[in-house]
Amino acid sequence: MSPSLGIEAIAGLIPIKLHLQKLGKRSQLQAHFLPTNHLIWMIMKSYHGTHKLQHPISLDALTNRQRSHVKDHLVDTNNRFNGIFSSFSPLHSELLPSLRIIDNFSDQFSFNLCDKEKNNKIRLQQLDNMVIESSNSPSTAIIITDASIKNDIATFISHMHTFNSPLIKTLHHAVFVTSTEAELFAIRCGINQASNQEDISKIIVITDSIHIAKKIFDLLLYLYQIHVVAILNKLCKLFIRNQNNLIEFQECPSQLNWSLHKVVDKDSKAFNPLLVFPCKMLWDFSRKTECDNIINNWKMTFQASDLKGR
């Protein structure tokens, strides 16, 4: 084993072999970003695409003997497709110029960030005043969201407060998702619940992950499109219904210990659902898992080395 292993470990550099392995496996996931009419999709096995006619050089056209001898990047990519949800569509209408929400409704959504230089008591008072004021308005819905992950099981929860109505709770569970996906899905559930009510003209989303809420309007973001497109679709319908309809995103850091957010946070951590393994996982979690496995492999290799400590 090379004596440079210790230097690489101190510098935080994984061995070149593992680095190339990471790049190779991640490149297998990039095909998910291609349009479904792309040549690579057509070469994949028929059930991955929407094409009825089989391509002459499709992997489906190989005999069993040929398939057993083929060792190629394309074959590995095809195998990875079996375990990944297809959640990206580069030609989705919500992302096309002139149809995007930031092009048509830029004045109907806003973000209110917490000023870190101010005292926490000031922000707590602002949130309390906002809730008191909104609770007297029959056209306003307050959505408080949170998510937690325990033993690879994510819990998404949102509480909706509306005028003269009981509290509405929305709860979902999922396995093998990242924390970003969990928070984004919790926001999606809350917006979906509020936007379905015809008498609601203003939605206030209170979250401790305001940076994730901003991803909804990030046009260069592809990893979480399955949630982003669903949220944008709901917001477009809300804004089209009335040009005065609005949505606000309010930041409420967890360290504030604001009473209403503490209740949601407690609820998200109170469940202990049983793990049910799905047949597939989301793209981003697969990418993260691949990287984690390589890092763990590197750690085990270094710990077992006779050169450790020299």
Structural write-up:
This protein is α/β, with parallel strands linked by helices and 310 residues long. It has two domains: 4-85 and 284-303, no CATH class; 93-276, Nucleotidyltransferase, domain 5, CATH 3.30.420.10. The protein contains twelve helices and six strands. The chain has helices spanning 4-11, 16-29, 39-43, 64-69, 73-81, 101-104, 120-135, 179-195, 210-213, 225-241, 259-269, 283-303; strands at residues 109-112, 140-150, 153-162, 168-175, 202-207, 246-251. The protein has a six-stranded mixed beta sheet, with helices on both faces. A hairpin with a 5-residue loop joins strand 3 (153-162) and strand 4 (168-175). Helix 2 packs antiparallel against helix 12 (283-303). The chain is globular, with a radius of gyration of 24 Å.
At the fourth level of CATH, the homologous superfamily of the largest domain is Ribonuclease H-like superfamily/Ribonuclease H
Counted beta strands: 6
**If strands are numbered along the chain, what order do they take across the biggest sheet?**
1-6-5-2-3-4
Percentage beta strand:
5-15%
**Overall domain count:** 2
- Alpha carbon gap, first and last residue: 12 Å
Order of helices and strands: HHHHHHEHEEEHEHHEHH
- Class derived from helix and strand content: alpha/beta
List low-confidence stretches.
306-310
Provide the fold topology.
Blueprint: H1 4-11, H2 16-29, H3 39-43, H4 64-69, H5 73-81, H6 101-104, E1 109-112, H7 120-135, E2 140-150, E3 153-162, E4 168-175, H8 179-195, E5 202-207, H9 210-213, H10 225-241, E6 246-251, H11 259-269, H12 283-303
Parallel strand pairs: 1-6, 2-5, 5-6
Antiparallel strand pairs: 2-3, 3-4
Helix pairs in contact: 2-5, 2-12, 8-10
